[in-house]
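REQUEST ID: PR-0412
SUBMITTED BY: lab tech R.K.
PRIORITY: routine
TASK: structure prediction, single protein chain
INPUT:
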Amino acid sequence: MRYELHGIISRPEVLDPIVEACRHARPVLLDGAELAMVPLCDEVYRTINLPGFQVDPENGFDRLSSGVAALITAASRRGAIAYLEADYDGGASRQVAAVWLDCQIVYGPNMLVPGEGIPTDGTSPFCEALRYLGVQAVGRVDEVVVLGLGRYNRTEAWCAAGTRA
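STATUS: complete
OUTPUT:
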């Protein structure tokens, strides 16, 4: 089964500047924590994909454009904020994550490349990034499952589930 995700995750008040800057952004509350995600669906990406902010092209991200990075960096003044991307299709998988705080990257970008496999010991880029946001694994359930990031298997489905205050 295919799974792909492009999303910005933090506390709702940290995400507020992103939601205010992009009328298409629809935050979705996540399970087991006081966190929300702004899914970076096509419409949101086109709105905030702006020039003027340099991002290393070899960081492994597909949608971490200059505009996305600028909004995340600015919002990180309010608290830690993570950007996650994943694409799984059968045996091939890619997972990339980074976390910003106080306008600095404090984690990543960290990437699993196709064929590397997702570690089951909590060292995947997603799990490590989510710990920066205060998410904790519960027993054998990792941070990704605790937040319910498997609720939908496509970014566009997350966008459809989001709400606008």
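NOTES: The chain is about 30% helix and 25% strand.
REVIEWED BY: pending
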